[in-house]
Input
Amino acid sequence: MKKIILILSLTLLSNGLLGCQQSSGTENNNDNISKQNETTENEITNENYDIEGIVTEVSSENKGVLLDLTEKGNERAEQMWFFLNENTKISNKNEETVRFENLKPKIKLRANLSKCIQPAIPQCSAKEIVILN
Output
């Protein structure tokens, strides 16, 4: 009887510890999401943006831009599609408004993103874009 009680106690204790570790991991994950959202909500500065890269393709049909990532973003991805909507702000380094039609391959830019899905090449909605060259 003592052995059964000891085994049950150890089982309950280990389940409780594993449950605490899993919730702790979730809290850290939520902190990372919050920090990412904080960065996204700010306007782009020299240090504050979600991704940076070189434009490799522009799709005027769906207002999409394929970027070869040079900094940040998904560490496993080398490229990312992002799509513009009516609220996306596009500007140059001098904060002058730029039209979508001015986005061409080989342009270097930075962007803040909103929603993303993660297939082989991540796809995101852009909130703000700054053309660097």
Q: What stands out?
A: Confidence is low (pLDDT under 50) at residues 13-42. The beta strands are 51-59, 64-72, 79-83, 89-92, 108-117, 123-131. The radius of gyration is 22 Å. The longest strand covers residues 108-117.
